[in-house]
């Protein structure tokens, strides 16, 4: 009996995760394809300026990367990137944060973006190429990062980890890929109160 | 979330609220505020050696 209940809960969780993944892919595609759309979150240049991104960096970055920006803060504020570093941009989207990181680490550095969405990876690569930035993008899940152990100096991320049902797993993965002494600079959404089950079970609200 | 970083093994975990974060629509912002939803910048380090 207990085993059946556990299996049923696990199945339900798996189904929710699959729905959530679809909803996230849909929502971020929507922002990238219709940056002038009416979303309930700020995005694009308006959001980036709100979070203190330097206007000269936004001017220098490809218009599409800026227009598709859907972050919740500015992880560069405390990333302290230096020439030659290897950086992971977790949930790299259309590439704005990765491109800015690439300029900071220079030609001897390396920026690896990881995104669930193959379309966003293609956009990030195209935007990086257009701006002369060196940004690789690997399609993958944040719970199973496609990177080796202890290969990254700094991990940045912007409004992505909250989308995972398995945050512990994500943080363990970040810890795994960081070199000893490596650092994270991550902006994300947190909630002081437990979200109601109706929100947790609604992929559209969760993805928001 | 703060505790989860420490649980994963990170040290020097620090957090600061992102002041400019808010939802565009008043109704969403009100709902978010009722749950204490905010954007936070986290920094942390993996211990040396």
Q: Tell me about the largest β-sheet of chain A.
A: 5 strands, parallel
| Overall average residue pLDDT of chain B | 91
Q: How is the largest sheet of chain B built, in terms of strand order?
A: 1-2
Calculate the mean pLDDT score of chain A and round it: 87
Q: Tell me the overall shape of chain A.
A: globular
Distance between the termini of chain B: 25 Å
Major sheet of chain A: order of its strands? 3-2-1-4-5
Shape assignment of chain B: elongated
3D architecture notes:
Helix content of chain A is 45%, strand content 18%. With 208 residues, chain A is α/β, with parallel strands linked by helices. In chain A, strands 3-2-1-4-5 form a five-stranded parallel β-sheet. The N and C termini of chain A lie far apart (36 Å). With 49 residues, chain B is of the alpha+beta class. Helix content of chain B is 33%, strand content 33%. Chain B contains two helices and two strands. A two-stranded antiparallel ribbon of chain B has the order 1-2. The longest helix of chain B has 9 residues. Chain B is elongated. The interface between A and B is medium-sized, with 40 and 30 residues. Strand 5 of chain A pairs antiparallel with strand 2 of chain B.
């Amino acid at each position: 009996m207990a085993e059946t209940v556990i299996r049923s809960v696990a199945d339900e969780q798996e189904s929710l995760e699959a729905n959530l993944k679809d909803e996230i892919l849909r929502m971020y595609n929507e922002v990238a394809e219709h940056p002038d759309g009416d979303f309930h979150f700020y995005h694009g240049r308006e959001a980036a300026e709100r979070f203190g991104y330097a206007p000269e960096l936004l001017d220098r970055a490809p218009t599409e990367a800026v227009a598709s920006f859907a972050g919740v803060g500015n992880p560069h504020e405390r990333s302290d990137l230096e020439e030659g570093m290897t950086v992971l941009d977790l949930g790299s989207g259309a590439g704005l944060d990765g491109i800015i990181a690439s300029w900071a680490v220079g030609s001897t550095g390396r920026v690896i973006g990881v995104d669930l969405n193959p379309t966003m990876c293609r956009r990030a690569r195209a935007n990086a190429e257009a701006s002369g930035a060196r940004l690789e993008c690997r399609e993958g899940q944040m719970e199973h990062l496609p990177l080796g152990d202890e290969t990254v100096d700094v991990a940045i991320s912007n409004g992505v980890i909250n989308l995972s049902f398995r945050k512990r797993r994500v943080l363990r993965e970040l810890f795994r890929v960081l070199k000893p002494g490596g650092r994270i600079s991550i902006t994300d959404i947190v909630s002081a109160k437990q979200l109601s089950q109706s929100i947790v079970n609604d992929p559209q609200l969760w993805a928001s | 979330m703060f505790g989860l970083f420490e649980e994963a093994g990170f040290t020097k975990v620090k957090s600061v609220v992102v002041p400019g974060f808010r939802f565009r629509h008043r109704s969403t912002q009100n709902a978010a505020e009722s749950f204490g939803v905010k954007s936070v910048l986290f920094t942390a380090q993996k211990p040396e050696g």
